[in-house]
Write a structure and sequence with these properties.
Low-confidence stretches: 10-28
Distance between the termini: 50 Å
Number of domains: 1
Order of helices and strands: HHHHHEEH
Largest sheet: 2 strands, antiparallel
Strand content: 5-15%
Shape: globular
Helix content: 55-70%
Oligomer: single chain
Number of helices: 6
Strand order of the largest sheet: 1-2
Number of strands: 2
Radius of gyration: 21 Å
Length: 184
């Protein structure tokens, strides 16, 4: 009996020691990971969309610009290029009809873009304060997008990242609307 009690206490101690590390790993996620999820979702939309749609080529060009902006930002460039690229993509997505079969996926994509824009607020002013500057931030979303606010992104599960939660929500919706080929 004592050996079993010792082993169960040892197991609980091991769990208690590793759980905080696991929780921190699941909670800390880079913006780059979420951007990559957005890029995968955009590729999925391109894969199911009509290539003759008026917005199709503009979206392909905007995706290329986002990839270039991400590479520039990772190399130490300004984050404003990411902000501009995401807003451009959101503008293009706003032109996709709400009646399109994949419009529920567009709503998830717009919510993910808004999340990234909220994670990288841009400085809008520097106010001098006794010889030091105070930087004032705002979330820079310029798009009047009809998809904005249509979907609330699912919160990540206990051991799930934010991008993992977006992928799971996207894939569930792709199955629900009959577009399994749009899974990411």
């Amino acid at each position: 009996m004592q050996r079993r009690t010792f082993l169960s206490r040892l197991s609980l101690a091991a769990l208690a020691a590793t759980l905080p590390v696991s929780l921190l790993t699941a909670c800390s996620e880079s913006i780059q990971t979420i951007l990559n999820t957005i890029l995968n979702a955009l590729a999925a939309i391109i894969g199911v969309a009509d290539p003759n749609a008026p917005w199709y080529q503009s979206l392909i060009n905007a995706i290329a610009a986002l990839k270039q902006a991400e590479a520039s930002w990772q190399a130490g460039g300004a984050v404003t290029v990411i902000d501009d690229a995401l807003n451009t993509i959101s503008d293009i997505l706003a032109s996709i009809p709400l009646t399109a079969q994949y419009s529920p996926l567009i709503a998830i994509l717009v919510a993910a873009i808004e999340t990234v824009l909220a994670l990288i607020p841009q400085p809008i002013a520097v106010a001098p304060q006794g010889g030091k500057g105070i930087i004032i931030y705002q979330v820079n979303s310029r798009t009047a997008n009809p998809y904005k606010g249509m979907v609330t992104l699912n919160h990540p599960g206990l051991f799930q990242t934010r991008s993992g939660a977006v992928r799971a929500q996207w894939n569930a919706k792709a199955d629900a609307i009959g577009l399994p080929q749009a899974k990411i």
